[in-house]
Amino acid sequence: MAAIALKCPRYKVTVVDVNEDRIKEWNSDRLPIYEPGLDNIIRKTRGVNLFFSTEIEKEIKEADIIFVSVNTPTKTFGLGAGMASDLQYWEKTAQAILENSEGPKIIVEKSTLPVKTAEAMERILRANSNNSQFEVVSNPEFLAEGTAMQDLLEPDRVLIGSHETESGLRAAEEIVNIYAHWVPRDRIITTNLWSAELSKLVANAFLAQRISSINSISALCEKTDADISEISYAIGSDRRIGPKFLKASVGFGGSCFKKDILNLVYIAESYGLSEVADYWRMVLKINEYQEERFVANIIKTMFNTVVGKKIAIFGFAFKANTGDTRESPAKFIAIKLIQEKAILSITDPQALRNAQIDLAGTGGEVTFDPDPYKAVEGASAIVVVAEWEVFKTLNYADIYKRMKKPALIFDGRNILDHQQLFKIGFNVYPIGKPNLTHFE
Ligand code: UGA
């Protein structure tokens, strides 16, 4: 919405939320999320044509176009629990729109939704007694956290799905016109409603599938002394494969990949396509396998026990450049190590607040320190979980001195200079590459 406000000065954009504290934060100097470049755009647009408010009913009444971006978490109860999307917030929003509208509106699905949600929403919206007319359009979001501003301002594509009726196509054109303020027309794709909804899930499933594919091969590399970075480079140089999303890691995290694949699996199953469901389920299974084998390797390498040993976790966010820790592999790893009675010190440039919340009640001995040099004091091992740039440029000779010997590094992102670390004296355990150890 901030990008629309920035690029379309003649539109008035109001963001509404039921959460008063959130809206207060959006109206303050301390935004509720960390996203590089966002504060700059908010500064330029807030109070000009971008507003944040809790007056939902009033704003619904006044709006011509409503983007619905409420969350659609995986259902935790009832039919489809653990797989399907929980659509209660979406439905409540549709009801609120219905109750507070006095004229025609375009409703834009921005949240990631299961295919055919638009149809269900239309049923709610058409159950009205007044003469409002609603046209539902799907406009899924493809931005990634940490690069959101760039993704929004220079998107690979914008996708807009609508009914292929006269009024549907007219509504789609209105949304196309918004993006056409800054996105070249040939990058604005229009499709039918269902294709747009399904494309969102499929895009995330394909991205996650690439990571699981390379991570599965990383396990094989560790058995054969092949090097996963060399393989990524070699296969990624084939233009048909391409180099992106081929970095082996501790596993993918974030609020979307798992949720969207579960959704895809659920949809496939509900249409009786069990082979399709199994195929995509394996992407998640490999991800869990990767996380589990990473922790198992830490414990095995530390002489099969981490009881009372201090381990420094470098990075708690689900990836670099965000404070978001949802589905972060770091959480899984930390909890496993706490269960094994390790002492953890966690460092992260942006995610410590969330890390504290995530680990509250786990009963472990855990400290949180924004300074990596302090976090490693007396530690036996460093575990790199998120690929923050700052971790690459630390003085590892100094860090080595502060640690207990033998000092171990488990580089779950392959971001460090392993040869250099080995020369300093570290025993180095990368992902999908031969270990470098001083042990006999
Ligand atoms: C993802 C998609 O990339 C966006 O296009 C989509 O809009 C978004 O989900 C969404 O549905 O909201 P995001 O979750 O922010 O974006 O982050 P990604 O950059 O896709 O990374 C996801 C996870 O994969 C991270 O844990 C990351 O570290 C991991 N990853 C990524 C790897 O392990 N290896 C790679 O090569 C790339």
Summarize the structure.
The protein is an alpha/beta fold and 440 residues long.
Provide an overview of this structure.
The protein has 440 residues and is of the alpha/beta class. The protein is 44% helix and 13% strand. It has 18 helices and 13 strands. Strands 10-9-8-11-12-13 form a six-stranded parallel beta sheet, sandwiched between helices. A three-stranded parallel beta sheet has the order 3-4-5, with helices on both faces. Strand 12, helix 18 and strand 13 form a beta-alpha-beta unit. The longest helix has 32 residues, at 193-224. The chain starts with a helix and ends in a 10-residue tail after the last strand. The model has no long low-confidence stretch (mean pLDDT 94). Bound molecules: uridine-5'-diphosphate-glucuronic acid (UGA). Uridine-5'-diphosphate-glucuronic acid (UGA) binds at residues 112, 141-145, 204, 207, 211, 245-247, 249, 252-254, 256-257, 318-319.
Give the arrangement of secondary structure elements:
Blueprint: H1 2-7, E1 13-16, H2 20-26, H3 38-45, E2 50-53, H4 56-62, E3 65-68, H5 88-100, E4 105-109, H6 117-125, E5 134-138, H7 148-153, E6 158-162, H8 166-179, E7 188-192, H9 193-224, H10 228-236, H11 257-270, H12 274-301, E8 310-314, H13 329-339, E9 343-347, H14 352-359, E10 365-368, H15 372-375, E11 381-384, H16 389-392, H17 396-402, E12 408-411, H18 418-424, E13 427-430
Parallel strand pairs: 1-2, 3-4, 4-5, 6-7, 8-9, 8-11, 9-10, 11-12, 12-13
Helix pairs in contact: 9-11, 9-12, 11-12, 12-13
Estimated structural class: alpha/beta
* Overall helicity: 40-55%
Beta-strand residue percentage? 5-15%
Q: Strand count, sense and closure of the main sheet?
A: 6 strands, parallel
Order of strands in the sheet with most strands: 10-9-8-11-12-13
Can you list the ligands bound to this structure? uridine-5'-diphosphate-glucuronic acid
- Overall geometric form: globular
Number of strands: 13
N-end to C-end Cα span? 58 Å
Rg for CA atoms: 24 Å
Mean pLDDT: 94
Low-confidence stretches: none
